[in-house]
Amino acid sequence: xxxxxxxxxxxxxxxxxxxxxxxxxxxxxxxxxxxxxxxxxxxxxxxxxxxxxxxxxxxxxxxxxxxxxxxxxxxxxxxxxxxxxxxxxxxxxxxxxxxxxxxxxxxxxxxxxxxxxxxxxxxxxxxxxxxxxxxxxxxxxxxxxxxxxxxxxxxxxxxxxxxxxxxxxxxxxxxxxxxxxxxxxxxxxxxxxxxxxxxxxxxxxxxxxxxxxxxxxxxxxxxxxxxxxxxxxxxxxxxxxxxxxxxxxxxxxxxxxxxxxxxxxxxxxxxxx
Length: 273
Fold this sequence. Notes:
Layout: E1 3-5, H1 11-14, E2 17-19, E3 34-36, E4 61-63, E5 76-82, E6 91-96, E7 101-105, E8 115-116, E9 129-131, E10 140-142, E11 144-145, E12 152-154, E13 162-168, E14 171-175, E15 181-185, E16 189-192, H2 208-213, E17 268-270
Antiparallel strand pairs: 1-2, 3-4, 5-6, 5-8, 6-7, 9-16, 10-13, 10-16, 11-12, 13-14, 14-15, 15-17
């Protein structure tokens, strides 16, 4: 995915760097795989804001993505590569031999017309999905299950890829994109290859308006607030106010936030750096 810059004729174009979307082969999505959803604007089921600085933005339709690939040993042809406004990765539209159509995350290098398969009979090729017990050691994988049959939960963002390190005693050691090495059951499914749209990290919005189109609202620094509004607020002049922390006093740097005796702690071989 090459990045496109502009010969600026407006201030917003001067610093913008956007995707040229050359890999996208179809502009309109599959209608039967669309679903309307209401933007929660960072609010939970009780209506309270749990994620700040969200709201507004362009209207979107939800693409129903198949994270389980539960059609074993049925070949599917890649019909199109499409844009998804709800995530950084691209989508691949699969046409199965039995007439079904489904979306999956598009791996890097996947071309229209390729034949993909999931299940015990699948070959270890890019885009195919199989259990960790059958994937060659050292292979790049993405869309990994944490529990067998639960669906992909790990390594789903643009450019993400994990590495299958080893297998021992019914568990496989997988090095995640964060650097953490984690043990997963060999029955967990994963897709071979790296998630596409590799240059997503090089995109620059160029102006505040593009952030608002995406539903991202402005952020005010804590030290610019009053003492009643933030722990870092107030002071005569430019005072720091102490250690970086949230408006509710939660430290932002250095404090460990992971549960010390969580259920999944025993599956972590080494933590991320």
